[in-house]
What we know:
Among the domains are: 24-123, Immunoglobulin-like, CATH 2.60.40; 182-274, no CATH class. Helices cover 16% and strands 32% of the residues. The protein contains five helices and 16 strands. It has helices at residues 8-17, 61-64, 141-153, 156-169, 290-297; strands at residues 28-32, 37-42, 46-50, 55-58, 67-72, 75-80, 84-93, 99-107, 119-123, 182-184, 201-211, 214-223, 229-230, 242-245, 249-250, 259-267. A hairpin with a 2-residue loop joins strand 11 and strand 12 (214-223). The radius of gyration is 30 Å and the shape is elongated.
Amino acid sequence: MKRLILPLPALAGFLLSMGLVSTSHALEILRWERLPLAVPLVVGQERVIFINRNVRIGVPDSVGAHLRVQSAGGAIYLRASEPIPPSRLQLQDVESGALILLDIAAEPANAGQPALEPVRIVEGDGAPSRTDNPTSTGENAPRDTANAVVRRATPLPVVLTRYAAQNLYAPLRTVEPLVGIGRVNLRHNLALDTLLPTLPVRALALAAWRLEDQWVTAVKLTNTSARRLDLDPRALQGDFIAATFQHATLGPAGQSTDTTIVYLVTRGHGLAESLLPKVAPIDAAVNLPPAAAAGQAEGGGARDEK
């Protein structure tokens, strides 16, 4: 029996005609370079976005009722039920806090319009890659190790303080990614009366983050007096390894300068465990019987022997 040998193009066409090979769907590649990415939608059609990250999705309230958003296995599924004007979604990496911005708009489908192809978001040349880490092996290992040394050359309290300040004051799209950092839940109604006991300020914990064994907590300080206050880290009471004020002074109460932020860095635990205990304003000894109180004063209340 003679063998039938087909050229490669002919073989591919033969297999395709027999249904043994299926064609793959087209895929649109979008490169993230810190510029918003346009992702148009069609009403009634679901569009898939592959991002290969664990992300939180921020959806504006104005479009939340008309846009179904689901996320699973590194893919995001968007489906608009009504036309949506140009709006912006925020994708935040859970591990590093880095943001990716998507500009969406949904329009009604036209007759004969093909379905929208899926989208894959890849890192741009100027964006850091998640694959860069000090434990990499292979030809890129020397470069990754050098990057790790550079990152650790900056003290961890400085890295944490800078990250917290960017999250509170800078536009979110400009926040530098920081691999390994995570948001920490704050204790509800955390009392901060002992933080700056010598100054007439009101303190309120706003947010906290953790990286390795260190925490940074952002605390809002508000002047409650009619005079200007100078802020000195040495006046802070607590177990802190670093403290940084956003501003060095506080203006009188009621002025635009009466509020600032202090960033407190702690090691091994959060802010709640780093504060001094609050001393009760009432001395419990005053409620003891006179004889017992006198006995305590004399060193333990021993009975007099007759």
